[in-house]
Amino acid sequence: MPIDLAAVNWLYVIVLAILVFVSTLVGNVLSFHHRMMAALLSAIVFAGLFVFWTYYPHNLPLPTTLTVQKAAAPPPAAPPPVVTPEKPRNPVMEIPTPAR
């Protein structure tokens, strides 16, 4: 199947389906069951609801885009600090060679 169903934002799909259902109900009620008028009113009501849902700043954690929102990438790691080698605790720096 060419669509990865695991990548679908199902909450967004459900919300849009509910918006379409409500707009279709409103369109049918307002048009007194005339099909073309109901379709036109449904499209207008859906467009209004969709714009309200997507662009109104309601400050709620609701899905507002079709794309999956990715977490921000962590900042690049700082370079490792320069480490100076420790001096040996033994004061003798050279190993004496045995005399022959």
Report on this model:
The chain is mainly α and 100 residues long. The protein has a domain at 20-56. It has two helices and no strands. α1 packs across α2. The model has no long low-confidence stretch (mean pLDDT 78).
Which key phrases capture this entry?
single chain; mainly alpha; 100 residues
Distance between the termini: 84 Å
Poorly predicted sequence stretches spanning 5 or more consecutive residues? none
Per DSSP, what share of the residues sits in E-state strands of 2 or more residues? under 5%
What is the 3D form?
A: rod-shaped
Approximate helicity band: 40-55%
Category from helices, strands and their pairing = mainly alpha
The main pleated sheet reads as: none
Radius of gyration from the CA trace?
Answer: 34 Å
Average pLDDT over all residues: 78
Number of separate strands: 0
* Helix count from the secondary structure assignment: 2
Task: Please render the helix and strand layout as text.
Layout: H1 10-31, H2 35-55
Helix pairs in contact: 1-2
Short characterization:
The chain is mostly helical. It has helices at residues 10-31, 35-55.
